[in-house]
Structures are given as C-alpha cells and as structure tokens.
Design goal:
The protein is an alpha/beta fold. The chain has helices at residues 17-27, 47-54, 67-75, 94-104, 126-133, 158-166, 186-197, 209-219, 241-249, 262-284, and strands at residues 8-11, 31-34, 39-41, 61-64, 88-90, 114-115, 142-150, 153-154, 170-180, 202-206, 235-238, 254-257. The strands form two sheets. Strands 3, 4, 5, 6, 7, 8 and 9 form a seven-stranded mixed beta sheet that branches. It is 39% helix and 19% strand. Helix 3 runs parallel beside helix 4. The chain folds into two domains: 8-38 and 182-284, Rossmann fold, CATH 3.40.50; 41-180, Rossmann fold.
Amino acid sequence: MHAVAPLRILVTRPQPQADEWVQALREHQLDAHALPLIAIEAPADRAPVAELWRHLARQRLLMFVSPAAVDWFFRLRPPDTAWPAETLAAAPGPGTARQLMAAGAACGLTSSQILSPQAHAEQFDSESLWPALAPLNWQGQSVCIISGGDHQEARGRTWLAEQLRAQGAQVHALLCYQRGPGHWTPAQQALANDALAEPGAHVWLFSSSQGIDYLIARHLPELPSRAHTDWSQARALSTHPRITERARSLGLTHILETRPTLQAVVAALRPLSAYQAGVDTINSL
C-alpha cells in the first residue's frame, strides 16, 4: 500500500503574501506551496511618493488597492513625515486594512481613519467599499489612489474613481510599486510541471486576473517541454468573479469561487482535500 499524497494547494499571490498564506494554510493541515505569479518591486521613480507624503494634509483620502500598495507606500515614507489627522485611508478588504494599521500606527494613522467594507461583505472590492465612502462629502476634495502598475503607469480602481469624480472629488493615481511576472526558481518550475501533469492532485489558488495573464504569457512558455497546456482537468479556487471569468477563458471548468478570506478559502479546500485523500486511498489498494 502506498502512502496517501495530500492535495497540493498552489498559492499564486505575490511575495511576501504567498509565504504568509502558505504558513496559514499549513496551520490548518493543508499542503500549501508558494508559486507566485506576480513579482512586486519599487517604482523606478520614488520621488512622487515622497512628494505626496510631504503634502499629505492636502488629501482627504488615500485609497490603497492592496497590501502591496500599503507596504511600498509606507516603506518609501520620508522619516520626517507623519499621517495627518484629517486624512482618511481606505482599503478594499480586511487584509489591506490590517496592513494599514500595522504600517501606519507608528506615524499617526489610527483605526478610526481607516474605511473598509464590512467583514461579512460578499466580496472585497471597490463596489463593496463604496457604501463606506458614499455618505461623505467629496465636493472639491482631493483623493489619491495608491496602486501599482507596469512601465510606470498607475492602474486600478477605475470604477471607484468614476464614482468619486461624480461626487465632485478630484481623483488622481500614484504608482508606488511595479508589477511584473518575476522569475520562477527551478523548484517552482518543477512544482508547476507537476501541477500540469497531475491536475487532479493540485488546486490553483488564483487571486489576480493579471497573475493568470502572466502565467500564460510568461511563466508557462519558460517551462521545459511544455509546448501546450490542457486546462480541462485542472482545478482552481478563485476569489473574485472577474478572476473566475479569466480562468474560464483558459478552458478551466473545475473552478470554485470563494470569498478572499482565510476562513472561506480553508472551508472551500477541505472537501477537495478530503476527496483527494479518498481517491488516493482507493488507488493505492
């Protein structure tokens, strides 16, 4: 009788989030492995971030699109600056909100200044955040969306920017980090090859449509002997409908959509892991 192989969960978030999720999932006895699809690095020009910090009191709101946006914005903070009392911060979900509190506490940001969706929200995105912002007076107020992008172009949260402008706000975006596909180590390439060769024994945890784009355009073509990928038997967890739609465009049909919280992801993975253990046990008899 062969040992039962646990279901492998491929965590595709950028680092360091990937390792944080791997550790958390392993604490729930799930066989998680980091396979980042996106690499995060500092912007080529850091001066605009420092300039915004020095005039932060002119901003009514800074909206952070992700934990990476929080990390790099505060990492690039000039040492002689602080968070003004009248400036609010917004986060699309609890992960970004927690990162804001951890990073901002030392420079004056308080929990009462942070706006984010309710913990029970079905999704954590701009649409879920808007009810927390809509009641405020935005006429003539300055709002900056803190995000990442490619080639020095800040991207993200177009819908939210449109809602704020419709309420009279002056909205601009600031790039505080750059996204790219990064490079997989030989061990990560081997992990991806295993997942494609044995789709039933792996689950892709997708948390970004752009990450899927990088997977197809950059990562897979670099795999040895991987001329074509058949996604019809692959399995995935998706944390947003737009990510699900992108995954389906590859040919994936086994997609389970879940809320982007650790508790929800663990709850979604447990039945899959139990099923895989049962299949492996039968096959080993």
